[in-house]
Amino acid sequence: MTKQTFLHDKHIALGARMVDFAGWDMPVQYSSIIEEHKTVREAVGLFDVSHMGELIVYGEDSLPFLNKLVPQDISKLIDLKAVYCQLTNKKGGIIDDLIVYKLEDKKYLVIVNASRIDEDLNWMVRNKCGFDVTIVNESHNYSLLAVQGPKACELIKSLGVETLPAFFNIKRSELFNINLWISRTGYTGEDGVEILVRNEFSEYLWDKLLEAGKAFGIKPIGLGARDTLRLEAALHLYGNDLDENTTPVEAGLAWSVSKTKTEDYNGKKVILEQLASGTDKKLIGLKMCDKSIARHGYEIFYNNEKIGNVTSGGISPIRGDNIALAYIKNLDNLAVGSTIQILIRDKLHDAEIIKRPFVEKKNKS
Amino acid sequence: MNESMLCTKTHEYVLEQDGKYEVGITDYAIEQLGDIVFVELPEVGTEFSKNEAFATIESVKAASEIYMPISGKVVEINEEIVNSPELLNDDSYENKWFVKIESSAPQVEFADLLDYSDYKEEIE
What we know:
The complex is a heterodimer of chains A (365) and B (124).
Chain A: H1 8-13, E1 17-21, E2 24-29, H2 33-42, E3 44-48, E4 53-58, H3 62-69, E5 82-88, E6 94-104, E7 107-112, H4 117-126, E8 134-137, E9 142-148, H5 152-158, E10 170-175, E11 178-183, E12 192-198, H6 199-213, E13 218-220, H7 223-232, H8 268-277, E14 281-288, E15 299-302, E16 305-315, E17 322-329, E18 339-344, E19 347-354
Parallel strand pairs in A: 3-13
Antiparallel strand pairs in A: 1-2, 3-9, 4-7, 4-8, 5-6, 6-7, 9-12, 10-11, 11-12, 14-17, 14-19, 15-16, 15-18, 16-17, 18-19
Helix pairs in contact in A: 2-7
Chain B: E1 6-7, E2 12-17, E3 20-25, H1 27-33, E4 36-40, E5 47-48, E6 53-59, E7 63-67, E8 72-77, H2 79-83, E9 99-102, E10 114-115, H3 116-123
Antiparallel strand pairs in B: 1-2, 1-10, 2-3, 3-9, 4-6, 5-8, 6-7, 8-9
């Protein structure tokens, strides 16, 4: 049966078109994906991302346990600081990408993709042997609301939060007399926050944010615009751009792999070897040279040889052209500026390899 | 929408005008697609049989093929919607047809087409 977030009635009342996403009945758009996209780039948008999973990991060995699971160095986290991570398998393939927050000594919050909660929990339990650690799935108790855009922080501050957490930090706070967590994170490339709140308060908070946000031009934003926003920001989508056969190094995420961590972790051998001597495939950013649109799965050619596939593609409402993320064979002569071809409905269309992200990120710390 | 148009269950329409037929997609289809960002039309002179894909339309989310409601030869295409696909989402824009065809389709090809009121009932 399709699951619903606690905000489901709100989406219906706002006239959202609903779609199934990872087993959840979620709003794909309220008005128009392009309009919603521009609202987030120019003002502020409110997203219901309550389908995402929240896990609490605590106990004496919570730090060494997490350090065994991810290539990042969790020991570097100070209280209330977060890090973007991947849960890797023994071959370095990505089981999920997630954010780990250190809430306090020996207690961590892990936010994971809705589609991967079961796999993540299974993997964590399989790796738990010998560690004094407890994993609690809190997903069904919490809602997650994202407030994103150039006006997002101004809006939250206007509600009485004097100091917002710094980029990739979280703090306990209060909005409209509701206790909640505010995290300076997001999935749009804009500045903004994600608010973790107990389910019973989420409808009230949603209404209040829309009301208070009016002066800032707030609009509710569906998953359609969430996807075009993250694509412009060249942020990976699990299942499209990341999977169990792709390592963080291949995915262009080497920046998020610790080069100094001494502890062993799942996939360390493969990942270190790839860091040292390169990979067979690599993630690239593309722009189409004509008006055609690359989509997930389309084949990529170079000199009449198939060299890869598009993993995410679509329009860029801000650039006005069409962009894509793709994996190609790691050929030396293919770099930013090179032209390759994408097979679209039996015809080859030129595309140029360009730098990622596709638009300037506004959420630098 | 013009009441004398005939529609397919896959949301195309055909409308006879001055001995030619205008072919496009219904308002309902456009609304369901949301923002339309790409339209590809065939070349003038191309012949299509009934139910053959003749055009591609893309929304932000996905690409869809558009099928010929009846057989015929393309005699005119709507360049405006190729150059500005967003016109299809514009309520004030009226020329939302895709192609005009010449057709000598036998009556049997019309048998499964719905008149507009039946189509509306079908989609409700």
